[in-house]
Design brief:
Layout: H1 3-7, H2 15-42, H3 48-52, E1 57-60, E2 69-74, E3 77-83, H4 86-90, E4 124-128, E5 139-141, E6 156-158, E7 165-167, E8 187-190, E9 193-196, H5 200-205
Length: 206
């Protein structure tokens, strides 16, 4: 064979290299598609800001022990959830004369929480943890007879900012700068599932 013929011959194709390049290109495209899909799928999930704006907050009460309080957030507000003991409920009686609004006539709560326990279910207390004086965060003082709070203290909440005192239903004591009871948010209670932000009356009428 002449040198000219050898020069014009078609180069031999490296099949193994060709298969590798095809596989690598396909793999890169698949990874790119996945990475592109991640933010798209994530956009389906509600953001924290959307939740803070008013989406309901669910609480599993089965994980709480009697006497325990947990904190949650709804509409950028901290929420206290207390699983009250029989002793806590008993502490609500006998000091109505020391309260500014014992029947919660002037305070903010749904109709189903306008009672001595201020609750849909007596065992479960749900409060917006904002002092009705200047918006501070009340602290828990659940131990009865705590003389650092007041004489004959029944247990409840104490705001260290300006000294407002609330019982275990969030009702404000006389002598406190706060004038209203701690607010109760709308909620539903189905078994051990508490949903803050969905009004039980409205759900029942839906």
């Amino acid at each position: 064979m002449s040198d000219h013929a050898a020069t014009d011959a078609v180069p031999e194709v490296d099949e193994s290299r060709r298969k590798f390049l095809i596989a690598a290109t396909a793999g890169t495209g698949a990874v790119g598609a996945i990475l592109t899909a991640v933010p798209f799928v994530a956009s389906w999930n509600p953001s924290e800001s959307a939740r803070a704006a008013g989406l309901p907050t669910e609480v599993d009460l089965s994980k709480m022990e009697a006497g325990q309080m947990t904190t949650h957030f709804w509409r950028k507000k901290q929420i206290y959830v207390v699983k009250r003991t029989p002793e806590m409920l008993a502490s609500l009686a006998g000091h109505d004369g020391e309260l500014k609004d014992p029947e919660s006539k002037e305070s903010d709560q749904p109709d189903y929480a306008k009672n001595a326990q201020r609750a849909l279910n007596p065992d479960v207390l749900v409060l917006i943890a904002v002092c009705t004086h200047l918006g501070c965060l009340p602290k828990t003082r659940f131990t009865p007879n705590d003389a650092t709070v007041m004489a004959n203290w029944p247990g409840g909440f104490f705001c260290p900012c300006h000294g407002s005192k609330f019982d275990l239903a969030g009702r404000v004591f006389e002598g406190s700068p706060a004038s209203l009871n701690l607010a109760v948010p709308p909620y539903t209670l189905e078994g051990d599932k508490l949903t803050i932000g969905v009004d039980a009356n409205q759900k029942g009428n839906a």
